[in-house]
Design goal:
The complex is a heterodimer of chains A (about 425) and B (about 240). Chain A is of the alpha+beta class. Chain A has two domains: about 190 residues, no CATH class; about 210 residues, no CATH class. Chain A is built from 14 helices and 15 strands. In chain A, strands 1, 3, 4, 5, 6, 7, 8, 9, 10, 11, 14 and 15 form a twelve-stranded mixed β-sheet that branches. In chain A, strands 2-13-12 form a three-stranded mixed β-sheet, with no helix packed on it. In chain A, β12 and β13 form a beta hairpin. In chain A, α10 runs parallel beside α13. With about 240 residues, chain B is an alpha/beta fold. Chain B has a single domain, classed as 3-Layer(aba) Sandwich (Rossmann fold). Chain B is about 35% helix and about 30% strand. In chain B, strands 6-7-8-3-9-10 form a six-stranded mixed β-sheet, with helices on both faces. A four-stranded antiparallel β-sheet of chain B has the order 2-1-4-5, with helices on one face. The longest helix of chain B has 16 residues. Chain B starts with 8 loop residues before the first strand and ends with a helix. Classes of the chains: A alpha+beta (about 425), B alpha/beta (about 240). The interface between A and B is medium-sized, with 23 and 28 residues.
Chain lengths: ~425, ~240
């Protein structure tokens, strides 16, 4: 019985509102924008945090990454204007210090980059050619899709073998499996032994985001033997000699809670041993914190927009309902005379408010689901709509209806029936 | 039926006083008013404006409370009842017919007739059937899904009468029930009230039109919140219908 009573009250509320369709529609606008921004906020925040987490997963949350960075030109103009060789970056000494003296360090992986073109018959490209140790794959959590990664005996035998990222494999070997085939790095031939899934480029990378990275891996010793530390870099028509011992050092920390300690130890050590700032330190965990901070600011901004429009929307509903209550004073008097109790009048007007706000909420959910699509398309930000977001937005809109409907409903219910009946 | 004066009371006013505050003045709309309406009686309450007849009707209808004294409906004292209990009493024991029909515009004829039942704590299961029967009785079974605005004044008032009967009330209160109608339609409505009286229902009709008051079984005249005169008629039901 109570269920049909409720259904009847809702039906009555809807038909009362339908007497003034435009008014009802305009009244719902505030709640509409409020709920849609709640959904948009959650979707964008969720997307940003998911992106940050993926970034960390790819870089390794327990890793601290040190990279060589070419110092800014003005730093060495005075001293090295005529010097053709630019010497900078991380050194073998840095590597030794980290791996031998730092507590909390599990594994350390050096990476050298080779500035050579990669060819296979008439196809050529310029991927990142990296000479590194077999543990690189394990530390960075990369996935082998075909064949294998570099192995210890490749390193010991200084073998001419290589592993391609799928991007490179697809370009150089469009019609066949590259396994067992040979490619040319600079002047030397390498046998392909495996394919590694490329990692999706992040906004923090210099290359455009979205495509996966082009990489070729060769054994560290092989790289040392054939290419040395001194390399020529061809750049926009000019030639530069560079002397870099190591391009990257990936430090794996034994436990996540030790990451900040190891990171600051690395910072200190590098600051002490390098006269110029020819390195950078990337701590994925810190990236996460930064992403969380961005998300927090975003939530505050959109959250205030959402709450302001919900507040204004709620006040709008209250205003219209107060007018409606006055307008329908006589109806209230009739109902009271015919036996309606105060709670019946309260529920009648409260239900109307909730129908209004939930109507606005549903339209808002629809709009809120559309906004992330637009954002994704034009702002190139990832958005994720969790199932809880529309539900939350819906509940908030219903709550707004109840909260802002209480006063008008109370006003209606406490009218004196005699006065109300006399009302014209 | 309807043996006058020997009937048990349906509505009993015992020393009822109702004061209104108008600015700094206190207006005494009912002044130590005692009267009993017996079961099956058809009363016309008459008096000039300000005589207290509206206040009497409001008190009888349990939408207003006496300042002093007690009022009993069907033997139930209303003094001790709270707002909810009073509302429940209205929905079970009382039927209202207003001058301006007072139907609810969002509801159709059938729903309007059923309104008093909606508000009962334990509504009867046969409510819709009752409403259909009553609609047929007042000649509106063809218009059950019409809205009040699609009906003439006489039709609206007939819906209102059906609504006043749907809860099997102990007392039917009519406030200038013919005031907004042309004379022909007014006669039809009055004939309907006569019929109800003939069935043994208790009716209190407030009016200022002498010829309307004449049709009732008994006439109660008020002046300044007191009884001016009581005229008990002995007319048979057949006489009232003529």
């Amino acid at each position: 019985m109570s269920q049909s009573t409720f259904a009847r009250t809702v039906r009555l509320g809807v038909s009362s509102l339908m007497l003034h369709k435009l008014r009802a529609l305009l009244t719902t606008l505030g709640v509409l924008f409020g709920t849609s921004s709640v959904i948009a906020m959650l979707a964008i925040g969720e997307g940003a945090s998911e992106e940050a987490q993926e970034q960390i997963r790819q870089l390794g949350s327990r890793n601290v990454i040190l990279r060589s960075v070419k110092p800014r030109e003005d730093f060495n103009t005075g001293a090295s204007q005529n010097v053709r060789v630019l010497s900078y970056g991380l050194t073998e000494d840095d590597l030794a210090r980290i791996s031998e003296t730092f507590p909390g360090v599990a594994r350390v992986v050096p990476v050298r980059e080779i500035y050579e073109e990669v060819r296979r018959s008439d196809r050529a490209m310029n991927p990142r050619v990296m000479a590194t140790l077999p543990v690189y794959r394990d530390v960075t959590g990369r996935v082998v899709s075909e064949g294998r990664f570099l192995a210890d005996n490749d390193e010991a035998g200084v073998s001419n073998v290589c592993v391609l990222s799928d991007e490179v494999a697809n370009y150089l070997f469009p019609f066949q499996s590259p396994l067992g085939e040979e490619i040319k790095v600079g002047a030397d031939y390498y046998t392909v032994v495996g394919i590694l899934l490329g990692r999706v480029r992040q906004q923090s990378d210099s290359a455009p985001a979205g495509k996966s990275t082009a990489e070729v891996f060769i054994p560290l010793e092989t790289g040392r033997k054939w290419y040395g530390n001194m390399q020529v870099r061809m750049r926009a028509g000019s030639r530069e000699m560079e002397e870099v011992e190591l391009h990257e050092i990936v430090v794996e920390v034994d436990a996540p809670e030790n990451v900040p300690v190891v990171a600051s130890a690395c910072r200190e050590m590098l600051a002490r041993n390098h006269k110029q700032s020819d390195y950078e330190i990337v701590v994925p965990l810190e990236l996460l914190l930064r992403a969380e901070e961005t998300k927090r600011i975003f939530n505050i901004v959109l959250g205030s927009i959402a709450s302001i429009s919900l507040l204004v929307g709620g006040i709008g509903i209250m205003n219209v309902m107060l007018a409606t209550v006055t307008e329908r004073t006589r109806e209230i008097g009739i109902r009271r005379a015919l036996g309606a109790k105060r709670r019946h009048i309260v529920s009648q007007f409260l239900v109307e408010c909730v129908v209004l706000s939930v109507g606005g909420g549903l339209l808002g959910v629809a709009l809120g689901l559309a906004i992330p699509l637009i954002v994704e398309r034009y702002a190139e930000m990832r958005t994720i709509i969790t199932p809880s977001a529309p539900i939350l937005a819906f509940l908030i809109s219903a709550g707004v209806g109840v909260i802002f409907g209480l006063y008008p409903a109370w006003r209606a219910a406490t009218m004196d029936p005699v006065e109300a009946l006399r009302h014209e | 039926m309807a043996e006058p004066s020997s009937n048990q009371p349906v509505a009993e006013l015992i020393g009822v006083t109702r004061n209104y505050r108008m600015g700094t003045n206190v207006v005494r709309a009912l002044d130590n008013f005692s009267f009993t309406f017996g079961r099956g009686e058809y009363w016309a309450v008459m008096g000039s404006s300000g005589s207290g007849k509206s206040t009497l009707l409001n008190v009888l209808g349990c939408i207003d409370r006496p300042t002093e004294g007690d009022y009993k409906v069907d033997g139930i004292s209303t003094n001790s009842l709270d707002d909810d209990a009073l509302s429940e009493l209205r929905s079970r024991k009382l039927g209202f017919v207003f001058q301006s029909y007072n139907l609810i515009p969002q509801l159709n004829v059938l729903e309007n007739i059923m309104v008093p039942l909606f508000y009962q704590d334990d509504p009867p299961a046969d409510g819709e059937e009752r409403a259909r029967t009553l609609a047929a009785r007042v000649g509106l079974s063809e218009r059950l899904d019409h809205r009040p605005t699609e009906l003439s004044g006489g039709q609206q008032q007939r819906v209102a009468i059906a609504r006043a009967l749907v809860n099997h009330p102990a007392l039917i209160l009519a406030d200038e029930a013919t005031g907004n109608l042309d004379s022909q339609t007014a006669l039809e409505i009055l004939a309907l009230l006569d019929e109800l009286h003939a069935e043994g229902r208790t009716i209190v009709l407030v009016t200022h039109e002498p010829d309307v008051g004449e049709r009732a079984q008994h006439v109660l005249r008020l002046k300044d919140g007191r009884i001016e005169s009581v005229k008990r008629g002995q007319r048979s039901m057949a006489g009232a219908r003529a």
